Amino acid sequence: MSDTEKYTEVIKANIALHSKMSEHYNTCEPHFRPENIQKVEAKLVAAINSTKAEKLLDLGCGTGFMINIAKKYVKEITGVDVTQAMMDKVDLSGNAKITLINHDTGSVSLDFGTFDVITAYSFLHHLYDVHPTFSTAFKALKLGGKFYADLEPNYYFWEKIHQLDRNGKYNPIVKREIEMVTYKDEDIKKNFGVEKYIFNNAEFGKNIKGGFREEELTEQLHKAGFSNVDFFYHWYIGQGSLINNEQYSKEERFKYADVMDVVLQKILPLSKHLFKYIGFVATK
């Protein structure tokens, strides 16, 4: 199968998967939890403030996770996604003008140099090839604009988890990650009736490529034309369990989680394999 054929196959898999999941996506995906939204909002606001943004483009907008956050801060938002059933769930209320385009992000036609900020949240791993989408982002951004992508699978974490035995005698925190990372396709088939090969193709960058390396993404972003890229690692293994551990008060939970995060951030790159996700802000 050629690259072009595979690219198309992955798009079709995404449409099939997310059309099935659209009714329940906002409740079954953990990134909709308040503690994650708070983290994302802080990063997005920083990008918006640094560019004095009025116009934002959300690539792979889905049901509107980023749109719901951004519409409090910008005047105009354009969302692009291949799955119409997902975009049908986007909340268009609020003061921002919201335009939705049902199209592949790698080939969508957008005016050159139009947007101050572009986002791609938990989306890049759904692509067979990220370069066309990076090119879209670069062309659509104004000079000095920011491209913010986040919640992408960290290759170094995925690699370590795949090395573990499903039946090994591990702490429940580790066992949960084994199931969520290595055997998620079984859960999707059970709950949504989507065949494993469709799910794995729909999450090509995660389930087939095994996640993203910072070095690989840097090369692709520079190839697209971006001059500067800042990466960050977050959601270390066990962080969610600590935040939601009701043995402690809410204040204690977040304090302990933050202390651990500070330590692990300080010892990067040694701790790189402990963080589930990677993100970046690239500047045009």
Task: Give a brief rundown of this model.
By secondary structure, this protein is of the alpha/beta class. Helix content is 47%, strand content 19%.
Descriptive report:
With 284 residues, the chain is of the alpha/beta class. A seven-stranded mixed beta sheet has the order 3-2-1-4-5-7-6, with helices on both faces. The protein contains 14 helices and seven strands. Helix content is 47%, strand content 19%. The mean pLDDT is 95.
Task: Reconstruct the topology from this structure.
Layout: H1 3-21, H2 25-28, H3 34-51, E1 55-59, H4 65-70, E2 76-81, H5 84-87, E3 97-102, E4 115-121, H6 131-140, E5 141-153, H7 155-162, H8 172-182, H9 184-192, H10 196-202, H11 204-208, H12 214-224, E6 228-236, H13 239-243, H14 250-266, E7 275-283
Parallel strand pairs: 1-2, 1-4, 2-3, 4-5
Antiparallel strand pairs: 5-7, 6-7
Helix pairs in contact: 1-10, 6-12, 9-10
- % residues in beta strands: 15-25%
Specify the number of helices.
14
The first-level CATH class name: Alpha Beta
Sequence of secondary-structure elements: HHHEHEHEEHEHHHHHHEHHE
N- to C-terminal separation? 34 Å
SSE class: alpha/beta
CATH fourth-tier homologous superfamily: Vaccinia Virus protein VP39
**Coarse morphology:** globular
Strand order of the largest sheet: 3-2-1-4-5-7-6
Mean pLDDT: 95
CATH architecture: 3-Layer(aba) Sandwich
Computed over alpha carbons, the radius of gyration is 19 Å
Work out the helicity level.
Answer: 40-55%
Question: How would a crystallographer describe the biggest sheet?
Answer: 7 strands, mixed
Domain count, please report it.
1
Q: Quick one: how many beta strands?
A: 7
CATH third-level topology: Rossmann fold
pLDDT < 50 stretches = none
